[in-house]
């Protein structure tokens, strides 16, 4: 199984990095560095998947892929 795509970006408003998993609704985390945001979102992902499993909710298959533009 493919793993879920993770976006990591800097947020001026939050004064730190945000990591989110688009396929898992509302699964995101904050960190002072990109590495910290990634560690935190991995914890959030595990909790999200465990909660969905316990509640009998459908766990979506990984399918999100960002659009990557190439110039030149």
UniProtKB/TrEMBL annotation:
Q: Which top-rank group of organisms is this from?
A: Bacteria
Q: Which SUPFAM superfamilies match?
A: TTHA1013/TTHA0281-like
The entry's protein name is: HicB family protein
Q: Which organism is it from?
A: Chlorogloeopsis fritschii PCC 6912
